[in-house]
Amino acid sequence: MVGQGTIPVRVLDDLYDGVYFLDPQRRITYWNNAAEKLTGYPAAEVVGRSCADNILVHVNELGDNLCQGGCPVALTLADGMAREAEVFLLHKAGHRLPVLVRVSPLRDDRGQITGALEVFADNSIRLETQLRLEELQRLAMLDPLTRLPNRRYLERQLEARLAEHARQGWPFGVVFMDLDHFKSINDRLGHQAGDELLVMVSRSLELNSRPFDLVGRWGGEEFLAIIPNVDPEALQRVAERYRALVANCVIFRQPEPLRATISLGAALVREGDTMDSLLARADQFMYQSKQSGRDRLTLG
Q1: How far apart (Å, rounded) are the C-alpha atoms in residues 21 and 31?
Q2: Of 56-60, 102-106, 242-246, minimum mean pLDDT range
Q3: Could you report the per-residue pLDDT of 228-287, keeping only the tens digit for each?
Q4: pLDDT tens digits, 29-50
Q5: Are residues 57 and 200 in the same domain?
């Protein structure tokens, strides 16, 4: 038992990785300091509750809710096998954080399963992101609300990618994203709710991008991602991951939870493209997604 056996509480609380224990009904019985820092949830809010009870709510990169099938903890409790998985937890602030989880069974003296231990670590590129943010802030190329690169920086990077493509033939794509029904949310719930929504979406896009991809705020409720070294299939995978994870974000607040979906248009660079022509195609595809029902990707 934590604190009464071979694992004192102070040892677990000193770890950089999040650690929590669950009983056979998947109720949380212990939550360490790192779990609080990584998820935003203090122990007082989670101990005694199920992790599926608006806490963590793990999904895979397709947005499938693992609490409804494929939960590593549930599988380990059922068969006693240790597991490792890359999943996306729901941060208290509403965004999705990629984590690497390791689940092990807990047994009594007779070998019977009495619960499970999960250890999870931040699987994002936080150090690289922080260094980039500091540099962008110094150059006044940071959007003040979302803390993403601003339009000015994105335009510079697009020009650089286009020049590389002209000289070396290096492929890249762009993904244009627009929040669905954003004006109605602002009108109904107020601009503060709208700002919270923009920050939630921006954090999910930023934390779930590959190290060499760039996501920024184009303006208003529009975001742009520059995705280097991709073919159509890889560009589609990246864009669908953005769509699915944003759709699984939520901030639990009154009078109603804040949720968002995005419509996306993705385009690969073509011979002779300019920044205007490339962005015009991506923008056109994004509007096709809007007209087809929103919360979807159109790629060309």
Answers
A1: 7
A2: 56-60
A3: 999 999 999 999 999 999 999 999 988 889 999 999 999 999 999 999 999 999 999 999
A4: 999 999 999 999 999 999 999 8
A5: no
Residue 276 domain boundaries:
126-299
Mark which of 122, 142, 169 sits at the end of a domain: 122
HEC per residue, the chain = CCCCCCCCHHHHHCCCCEEEEECCCCEEEEECHHHHHHHCCCHHHHCCCECCCCCEEEECCCCCEHHHCCCHHHHHHHHCCCEEEEEEEECCCCCEEEEEEEEEEEECCCCCEEEEEEEEEECCCHHHHHHHHHHHHHCCCECCCCCCECHHHHHHHHHHHHHHHHHHCCCEEEEEEEECCHHHHHHHHCHHHHHHHHHHHHHHHHHCCCCCCEEEEEECCEEEEEEECCCHHHHHHHHHHHHHHHHCCEECCCCCCEECCEEEEEEECCCCCCHHHHHHHHHHHHHHHHHCCCCCEEEC
Model confidence pLDDT, tens digit, residues 182-238: 999 999 989 999 999 999 999 999 999 988 899 999 999 999 999 999 999 999 999
Final residue belonging to a domain, choices 71, 97, 122 = 122
pTM here is: 0.78
Hey, which residues are catalytic here? 221
